[in-house]
Amino acid sequence: MDERIVMVDPDTGLKLTEEQLDERSAMATVQLRRRGVRAGDTVLICLPVGADLMIATDAVIAAGGVACPLPADLDVDTLRSRIRESGARVLISEAPRALEAADETRVRIVMGVADLGALPPYPIRRDFCTQSDRIERRSSGD
Amino acid sequence: MGPHMMAQVPHNLPAEPNRFVGRARDVAELSALVHEERVITLSGVGGIGKTRLALRVAARAMPGFPDGVWLVELARISRPALVVNELAEVLGVRDETPGRLLDGLRVRLRAARTLIVLDNCEHLVERCAELVAELIAECPGPAFLLTSREPLRIPGELVWRVPPLELPDDHHPDAESVLLFVERALAAGARGVPGSMDDVVRLCRALDGLPLALELAAARTSLLSPGRIADRIGDRFRLLTTGDRTAPARQRTLLATVEWSHDLLTPGERVLLRRLSVFAGLFDLELAERVCADGGILRGAELLDLLSALVDKSLVLHPGAAGRYRLLETIKQYAAERLEEAGEAAQLRDRHLRVICEELEQCYGADSLNRGMPWAAIKQAFTRGRSLLDDCRAAVDRAVESGQPVLGLRLASTALAIQAVRGDLGESVGWHERLLALDLSGMPPELVAVANGGLAYGLELGDELARAEELIVRAVEEQKRHPYTHWLGINYCVALTVFFRRGKSKEALAYLDELEAAATDHDDLFNLATVRIAQLNLALFQGRLRQAQRYGEEALAIARKTGHHWTLARALTHLGAVAEAAGDLETAMFHHASALPLLADMDNRIELARCHTKIARVAAGLRDFATAGEHVAAGLALSMQTGQRRGIVRALMALSALARAQDDIEGAVSAAAAATALREAIGQFGAPGRVQELLALARARLGEGRVALLWAQGMKQMPEEVAARALDRARSGAAAPGPAGSSALPGLRYDGLTGRERQVAGLLTRGMSNRAIALELVISPATVARHVANIMEKLGFDSRAQIAVWAAKHGMDAERT
Questions:
Q1: Is the pLDDT assigned to residue B621 strictly greater than 70?
Q2: FRET pair for B213, CA 20 to 30 Å: which of A69, A76, B201, B794?
Q3: How far is B161 from chain A (nearest CA, A)?
Q4: Cβ separation of A30 and B682 shorter than 8 Å?
Q5: Which residues of A touch B39 (CB under 8 A)?
């Protein structure tokens, strides 16, 4: 695959290749759909300019949604009224101010950047003996 | 899964009290999400409708959770330590040893496909967070749906912010909030509401679309028009007298509405509402009257009318109209604040403590054991007593904080009878310890002794034998100085068990004689039966079988006289053990099979599991393998459900015996190995002789190496896997030795892909970017991205690379348009 660079992060200098963009936005699209984003839904995106913003925007469009960018530097009240006007159910952001502004709106789910990737696998313990058993047996010294 | 399966999903969800309005999309999305996410928290302010939404979603999601959908209402408990108890109670997990309920929960939930709804977590959010995080890490089966004002903030939690109902606007005059208000107003008997829709719209906006506020307002429409209500509530927002003015707008709206509704109450209704806040959960009219009425400002005779009026105003709920009432959490908090404000809190909580104590004693005092009541009446009293446990907790808390050990310990001792029959004494130990730490100087010494005896009982079950012995001896010796009560008899029995377990048979025999004399003198049949059973055990131990049988028959005769099924079941199982020892398996089978329905009826699932296992062993001896398989499976399932690892050990050993009887030595070794591994894990001693004898036989038949291998495998495997395999073999008559064939992986479906999607998948095998694919197919890159997402969703993949590998394997790389 060609190593075309689609973006260079202004802060970190990290490069995003086309392959990475395709891969990550595909994953993000699945995660958005899993959380109920359907064709025609407005999805708010309040992320700093960079790779994540690009991935999120591509993903929303691929999910059939309408990507609605929110500048992160607005004050809480303005953000809140923008969020209310949008009627959006999903907000993609990690900015504390945007999270606060999402209170008292109709946003159901706030997704962080990590939520756009794959779900973390849950560690599963395979044996029947539990933690407290081990502690107790050790301390009773048998 | 067919529709017939849906009806079989076990659950404890209440029926919906009235029609659920709106939120169609939220319900649909959440019903799908609960199958994909492990933890979903519905968050939002009180009164926004989290619980109704959760119950709706849980009911819809039922077909996907074959092991059940369980609602755990946390509003009724106040101590973080009780979250585990509440969960165990709902799931039917019993305390194996006091304080180790969580282990039982893990056993119960490990492989169970269940949905657990934890309702109202906000006041216990830290404990809930710990517990849920732990359970999802250790148990792959269950999913959690929570309602909480605050999210748990644990990894993997999906926080779903519940919004208010949609508000009307020019395009949607029939928004959700309007529909809810009109629906409830009509149900309240309002007329003219459809004619004043402008006012309804104004009111819905003023109430922010908050469901509880809308319900409270609608309940008043039989007397006030929507316009009047809107005007009055509008004034409220300016005049809010209680609560935090800086609270979020929705919270203030709700508070103002609750306050408005409260202020419209008659003085009598207000007094009753605030006093009802002392109940932990459900209460009935009689209890409400005894706790709340005082003959002065609130008379007993008017209570029913007042309660009905509060139900009409939606301030008190009457779920299922079964004669039991409760307060919604938001209302209960408001009412509790009013109770404090009126200066009545201490007085009412004292009255609650006294009434609950008396009520419980009425239901299940120790003397009820010998009243000769018919079993149906005993059982009814028992069920009633059990329904009071939530209030008992609140009452014990009050007794501790206000320093009232007498009432508190009377309550704890009486509750012990209920907790013991269910095999659940962990909480009782905590109550006794907290209450006994109070200043006991004003307390009659015989009451302190009874309480010490109660504590010793719990400690004995928890294997704290040294402390139990010290306490129980003190308790018995003190009570001997006072007139005989049934408590003394019960304490003697606890002492016997402790002495026998500590190998002090001389002391045990002395107490046994004393108890026999005292119980005979005072015609205490319940404890006399226990004496006979202890004598039976002793005779059995010493090999005096005929004498053992005589004691058993006497115990049975006493049990028949008292009519108490618990005594009857114990006499029968012990007679069964004697018959087994005498080699009379038919008689043993008869006794055990007679005890089985009694235990099932009492819902003592621990003893029931044990009884099933015994029947299985006896049936195996009688070479009735079908019956043996059936009962060992039933015992195993019960032990898994109640989280009893000792029960699982017993079932595995019975399986081993069954396999051996069927000449399946390999199966017998595997099951014994699994039993031994589990027994060692829980630090329990077993019967090594029986296992050694089996291993010797197996070595002679199968050879040293084969046995070593089987043993090692059995030790390592999951007990339920070993058990399932052994059961299969037992059922097929051990005809097919060797491991079962591994089931084939379910085939992936790919015929669901559209032609375009197959093309895109094919191009992905060449490592092309979306842009390149777009150029190739003459479509936009966004469309390519959508196809990729569709393919991933259909195939359950989460990377493009997976699609490429899969497509290559299915020959799509060669496909051309």
A1: yes
A2: A76
A3: 4
A4: no
A5: none
Residues 6+ apart with CB under 8 A from B170: none
Interval A59-83: pLDDT, tens: 999 999 999 999 988 899 999 999 9
- List the helix and strand counts (H, then E) for chain B: 39, 8
Q: Which residue in B32, B136, B800 is closest to A122 by CB distance? A: B136
Quote the pLDDT of residue B814.
62
Strand, coil or helix: B645: helix
CATH code, residues A5-140: 3.40.50.980
Return phi, psi of residue B39, to 5°.
-135, 120
Output phi, psi for B403, to 5 deg: 65, 50
Top mean-pLDDT range of A107-111, B718-722, B741-745: A107-111
Q: What is the pLDDT of residue B370?
A: 57
Q: Where are the domains of chain A?
A: 5-140
Right CATH number for B755-814 from 3.40.190.10, 3.40.50.2000, 1.25.40.390, 1.10.10.10? Answer: 1.10.10.10
Scanning B7-124, the segments in alpha helix (DSSP H) are 24-33, 50-61, 82-91, 101-109
* CATH class of this structure's domain B3-161: alpha beta
CB-CB contact of B726 with B628 (8 Å): no
Q: Where are the domains of chain B?
A: 3-161, 176-264, 604-731, 755-814
Q: Does residue A137 register a pLDDT over 60? A: no
Could you tell me which CATH number the domain at B604-731 has? Answer: 1.25.40
- Tell which A residues from 38 to 77 touch B, by Cβ distance under 8 Å: 58-59, 61-64
Residue B127 is predicted with a pLDDT of 95
Residue A13 distance to chain B (closest CA, Å): 23
Give B727-743 pLDDT, tens digit per residue. Answer: 888 777 644 333 333 33
pLDDT score for B246? 61
Interfacial A residues in 103-132 facing B (CB < 8 Å): 103-110, 118-120, 122-130, 132
Exposed / middle / buried, residue A95 (Cβ in 10 Å: 0-12, 13-18, 19+): middle
3-state secondary structure B460-522: HHCCCHHHHHHHHHHHHHHHHCCCCCHHHHHHHHHHHHHHHHCCCHHHHHHHHHHHHHHHHHC
Q: Pick the residue from chain A with its C-alpha nearest to B161.
A: A108
* Residue in chain B nearest A6 by alpha carbon: B771
The answer to whether B102 contacts chain A (CB < 8 Å) is yes
CB of B149 within 8 Å of any CB in chain A?
no
For the sheet with B324-327, list strands across it.
Answer: B283-284, B324-327, B316-317
Question: What pLDDT, in 10s, does the model give residues B356-398?
Answer: 999 998 887 545 565 667 788 878 888 888 888 889 999 999 9
Is the pLDDT assigned to residue B745 strictly greater than 60?
no
Name the residue among B487, B486, B538, B477 with its Cα closest to residue B512: B538
Residues from chain A that touch B767, judged by Cβ atoms under 8 A, are 1
DSSP tag of B320: G
Chain B: give the shortest CA distance to residue A74, in Å.
20
Task: Tell the residue number behind the tokens 């992160």, with chain if given.
Answer: A72
